[in-house]
Amino acid sequence: MTNTLDDKAIVKDYFNATGFDRWRRIYGDGEVNKVQKDIRIGHQQTIDTVIGWLESDDNLPNLSICDAGCGVGSLSIPLAKAGATIFASDISEKMVTEAKERAAKELADTGKLTFAVQDLEALTGQYHTVICLDVLIHYPTEEALGMIKHLGSLAQSRLILSFAPKTCLLTILKKIGQFFPGPSKTTRAYQHKEKTIIAALNENGFKIERTSMTSTRFYFSRILEAVRSE
Ligand code: SAM
After folding, report:
1. What is the pLDDT of residues 82-113, one digit of tens each?
2. Which Gene Ontology BP annotations are present (predicted)?
3. Domain spanning 4-219: which CATH class is it, in words?
4. ipTM score here?
5. Which atom of ligand 1 lies nearest, measured to the CA of 132?
6. pTM for the structure as a whole
């Protein structure tokens, strides 16, 4: 039995406190420990893969993109730089504030990039592409499936997701244990079966177009690009 509201409250508190400091450092370029450096490299590979897919389509300036759970803007900022219109949101106010500051430093014109503090299941509107990277790891599969359904309803053409695949369960639990030593720093991490995620995407009218897997020593992320099949 899961309680989405509790899970969201826990995740939100974490990313407004200890999690904010930790992930802001990982998603930055300052000094970090070896494990954090490995996760930084892995995460950047995930970001680069998605940007590579979008750039290869050669239509970024025509796209409206929703970046759900945008963190510090690691994806939104380069996509805005490449000319896409981005709506970026996150449940953590601290993450959004940091993302706004980074965007102001990195972009000559922030006009195509809008930020909001919002739970992704409260998002409305229609976007050509909806992207949700490394967010589903924070929720049990049942809740992740509800999120996929909602994100799918916002996507006119395409939904891009990343998640920790279930096959890496033991490895990832071990690594996350090393990464979050001590209960005060811990947030829960959930892996999802790829089969289950793909079935949910199919049920919501999407078929898989491109896939990728990022694996480093401490970071595992399966990336799926799903496009509308009807
Ligand atoms: N997607 C970003 C990236 O790849 O750089 C950030 C990934 S970070 C591991 C997870 C982010 O998801 C955090 O910023 C967290 O606040 C956000 N998040 C978690 N649950 C969320 C929800 N229900 N709605 C919106 N954002 C959420």
Report:
1. 999 999 999 999 999 999 999 999 999 999 99
2. chlorophyll biosynthetic process; methylation
3. alpha beta
4. 0.99
5. 1
6. 0.93
